[in-house]
Amino acid sequence: IISPWKWTKNIDGEPIQALDLHRFSAAMTRAAIRNILDGWLDETNSMGGGLTADLVIITGKGLNSVSTPVLQEITREVLLEYGIEPQLDKTNSGRMIVGIGDLLECFGKKSWR
Questions:
Q1: For the whole model, what pTM was predicted?
Q2: Who contacts 28 (Cβ-Cβ below 8 Å, separation ≥6)?
Q3: Distance, CA of 60 to chain centre
Q4: Beta carbons of 75 and 87 less than 8 angstroms apart
Q5: For residue 80, which phi and psi values (nearest 5 degrees)?
Q6: Closest by alpha carbon to 14, among 40, 52, 60?
Q7: Rounded-to-integer distance, Cα 86 and Cα 98, Å
Q8: 77: part of which helix (H) or strand (E)?
Q9: How does pLDDT run across 39-92, given as a tens digit for each residue?
Q10: How far is Cα 37 from Cα 16, in angstroms, rounded to an integer?
Q11: Distance between CA 41 and CA 21 in Å, rounded?
């Protein structure tokens, strides 16, 4: 199993874990995002209680995409299925950010049960 988590740095140079999808196929990107979000929705999963910071998603800049960055579009589509609107990182166009407030709002009011 491939772990999509990667240690990187935020704008302040602090270490953070990011969801690194930029070498994933479109199908793997969809599966990875849904797996993580569904895990956070699962009340028996301890990860949901660990949401303490923005979610950083590395999609890459789309340099190998024919037109628009494919993984950014897929990431946006999947997140919108959960009612989450990601933002393009202003300091790195190969990253998308989901604010902690948006995550807590989404996962605080939804459950599969």
A1: 0.82
A2: 2, 21
A3: 12
A4: no
A5: -65, -30
A6: 52
A7: 5
A8: helix 70-81
A9: 877 655 555 455 678 899 999 886 666 677 889 999 999 999 999 999 999 988
A10: 18
A11: 21
